[in-house]
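Hello,

Our lab assistant flagged a job as stuck in the queue for most of the afternoon. It eventually completed. Since we weren't sure the result was trustworthy after the delay, we are filing this so someone can double-check. Below is the sequence as submitted and the structure that was eventually returned. Let us know if re-running is recommended.
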Amino acid sequence: MPSESEFERLVAPLRGELHEHCYRMLGSVHDADDAVQETLVRAWRHRDGIPGGAARPWLFTIATNRCLTMLRRRRRRELPADLEPEPGAVPDAEVAWPEPYPEARVVAHEGMALAFVAALQHLPARQRAVLLLRHLLGFSAAETAGILGTSPAAVNSALQRARARLDARLPATAPAPDAQVRERAERYAAAWEAGDVDGIVAMLADDARYSMPPLPAWFSGRERIREFLLAGPLDGHRWRFLPTTANGQVAFGTYRLDADGGAFRPAGLDVLRFAGTAVAEVVSFLDADLTDFGLPDELPPSAGL
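-- returned structure --
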């Protein structure tokens, strides 16, 4: 049976990879924290069962099955991608959005994009697990079957169905080179800070989407987004945007000047997806803790002047 130091030596290199896997499965950083913690507690209790030199598949077996248990206990969808495209539309079922993932915690950017994580949440849980284990983590069909307690034939069938479902939901467009995206992102932030609605809208793709988790309301298309901006966040409010990254994507911590002009207070984390150099989607996480993304919890009223 491994000692505490030997156990830590086995699991330490895998903690980040385990956390990303649980996040992709669950769509939640906080739920992933819980899943990884429970995985390591269970692994420690049963450490005498660690196969010699094979800690990785053993740990991913525990983590994946813990995630599947957590998913069975909740019934909800991620991102309102299948809602009617009407502002203020409220779904019949409870809706939850994937939480943004802080860049400081990212081990590998592959498969961390917000659109990918959101699309995963529409897959049945076991298909989701198969796709992640085979496609991103590199486990063989036989290893995946062992993790999930099924057959290689069932794994291959589930993988084929999962890929087809995922391809139908993922955006087909790709961003421009990094330098062009950074330049466009800077212009986007500057337009917000200047209150330039026309400038913001001009940078949007024709079919751009704007959502604000945890609110169920969302907006699609330049004109609907323009109407929302004029009636809400840019109706006399002053803003400051600070750059950061989330899920490997361009993001901004947004700060709005409070009513008495005493400080710019956190208003959300905006995660941008680009199609070429156009902004194709903005997901504004209203409840995000900006300090998790290396940003201050408020700005002085003179910020940016």
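-- support follow-up --
The delay was a queue issue, not a problem with the job. The result is valid. The first strand starts at residue 77 and ends at 78. The CA atoms of residues 88 and 217 lie 4 Å apart.
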